[in-house]
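Slides due. Your pick:
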Amino acid sequence: MLGSVAEKALDPVYLITGSDKPKIARALQRLRERIGEDAIEQLGAASASGADAVAACNAMGLFGGDQRLVIVDEVERWKAADVKEVAEYLAAPAPTTVLALLAEEIKADSALAKAVATAGQVLSYEVAKRRVPEWVAEQFARLGVSADADACRALVETVGDDLDDLASEIDKLATWAGGETVTVAAVEQLAVGRAETPIFSVTDAWGRRDPAAVLGSTESLLDRSQRPRSGELLRLVASFVSHVGRVRRLARLADQGVSAKEAAGRLKMHPFAAEKAAKQAQNFSPDELAQAIVRLAEVDVAVKGGSRLPADMVVERALVEITRRD
C-alpha cells in the first residue's frame, strides 16, 4: 500500500481507483509530498493521450537526479491505443519518474490494470454501499473522534452516500464535537442534507413505537425546515406514506422468507435502510401497517384542506394513533 511505504522505494507506476475519493485524495497527497510539488506534472486523459503521458514521463526522466511525478486523471477515458502506448512504456519506464494514473472505475482484468500490476501497483479504494455507515465510523476514528452507530447511519441518511459530501460533514462534526461522542442529536442539528430536511428521526421513533419521540421529532423537523409550515407538513405526510409502504413491502417479503439484503435489491433500497425498515416491520402486525397507510391517506386529504382542524393537530394526532400500541 502507498501509505505504508514511507521509507521504501516508490514503484514506477500506480493505478489508483475506487469510490473512496477521500482516501484516494490522501493517497495521492502522500505521493505528492514524497516527490515534492516542484517536481510534478499533472495531465487529464480528456485531453492528454497515452502518448502524451509517456512523453511527459520520458521528458522528466531526462533531468535525472531526484524523482519526478506525472499524474494523469480519468484514465478510464483512454482508448486501446492509449493503453498500448503506456503498456509499452511500462516495459522499460524512466528510472526517476513515477506515473500515477487515476480512474474512477476500471476493471481489474483490463489491459491497463494488468500492465500496471506487472510494473507497479493497482490501489483500489472501494466502499460498498451497505458499508458506508461503517466507513463513516472509520473516518471519525481516523480524526480521533467517537461516533455511535446510530449517528453514523443518521449521517448517511441525511447527507446521502457521496463520500466527498460525507467527508466534509464528518470534518465539521469532528471539529464541533471537541472530543465528545458524536450522537444522532448532533447530526440532526448540524449535518446539511443534500436536498431535503430528513425525516428519519420521526420514522425511527415510529418504528420504535414511541409516541412522545414522534411528537418531539416532528416539532423539531418543522422548526428546522426552511419551507412554510404547511408545505413541510405535506412533505412529512408524503414521506411517511412512502416509508410505511416500504416497511409493509419488506414485511411481506420477510413472510416469504426473503432476507432484508435480498429485499433491498428487489425494492432498490439502500441495504442498511432495508435492514432498518425490516426491523421496524417486526414491531407491527400486517393489519397495523395497512391501517397506518389508510390513516395517512386520510391525513393527506385533511392537510390539503379537507379538515377544519389545524393541519399540525391533524398530523400529530394521526402519528400518535399509528405509533402507539393499543
